[in-house]
């Protein structure tokens, strides 16, 4: 009798083992099926690292390597980078881009003009622009009254020339950038932000559709290309011959 009892216990134990193994495997699958981090994938990459792997920022990545600014955007920060897309560089024309890439000092200045110390998300920029505009409106109430009187007396036209809300950021080149927010759209000088809030470990990237040119710097404009000069007045007309 005892032998039969022991035998039954052994049989039950053998039958239970596959069930236990299956449960363990199912449990492991449930644990590993969920990725470690489903959101904010760029949180594990630096600004330079993201630019280096983005197929739409190959020109910018090359420029960072040429000027040696890759290391700064890979280890320093936090920074806010307004990153021109490949289309933005292509709009300058190949001759202009090639010339710029051969002039390392100018290229460095141009790149620094796209970088601001500190991390400014689109929400930060919007709040700053609204706050600055609100302060300006409050401070200019008395000035508007004087402006109206001046207009009646034949003074110049002083109607506002700003649209939307605007704030100013100082760049690594020492120059300032005007950031305008209107109807949810963000513009940096005359460039549109086409993709915003790419978060990195050392800051944030906003992709723009134009290459920003620091005030006072002239770039050679390829034929049929316009709007890439920092100053509207160029010296192109000086090539006219004098009789």
Automatic annotation (TrEMBL):
Organism of derivation: Methanoculleus bourgensis (strain ATCC 43281 / DSM 3045 / OCM 15 / MS2) (Methanogenium bourgense)
Taxonomic lineage of the native organism: Archaea, Methanobacteriati, Methanobacteriota, Stenosarchaea group, Methanomicrobia
Any GO CC annotation of this UniProt entry: extracellular space
Protein's recorded name: Beta-Ig-H3/fasciclin
InterPro entries associated with the record: Adhesion/Biosynth-related, FAS1_dom_sf, FAS1_domain
Domain FAS1 stretches: 44-212
Classification via Pfam families: Fasciclin (PF02469)
Superkingdom of origin: Archaea
């Amino acid at each position: 009798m005892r032998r039969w009892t022991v035998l039954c216990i052994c049989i039950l134990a053998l039958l239970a083992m596959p069930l236990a193994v299956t449960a363990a495997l199912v449990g492991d699958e449930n644990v590993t099926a969920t990725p470690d981090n489903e959101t904010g994938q760029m949180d594990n990459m630096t600004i330079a690292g993201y630019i280096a792997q983005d197929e739409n920022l190959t020109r910018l990545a090359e420029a960072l390597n040429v000027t040696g600014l890759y290391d700064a955007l890979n280890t320093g920060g936090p920074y806010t980078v307004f990153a021109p897309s490949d289309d933005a560089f292509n709009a300058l024309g190949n001759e202009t881009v090639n010339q710029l890439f051969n002039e390392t000092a100018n290229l460095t200045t141009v790149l620094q003009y796209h970088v601001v110390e500190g991390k400014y998300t689109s929400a930060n920029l919007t709040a700053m622009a609204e706050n600055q505009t609100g302060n300006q409106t409050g401070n200019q109430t008395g000035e508007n009254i004087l402006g109206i009187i001046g207009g009646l007396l034949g003074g110049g036209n002083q109607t506002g020339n700003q649209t939307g809300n605007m704030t100013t950021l100082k760049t690594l080149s020492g120059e300032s950038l005007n950031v305008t927010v209107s109807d949810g759209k963000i513009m940096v000088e005359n460039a549109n932000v086409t993709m915003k809030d790419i978060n990195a470990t050392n800051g944030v990237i906003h992709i723009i559709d134009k290459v920003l040119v620091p005030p006072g710097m002239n770039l050679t404009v390829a034929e049929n290309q316009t709007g890439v000069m920092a100053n509207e007045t160029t010296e192109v007309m000086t090539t006219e011959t004098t009789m």
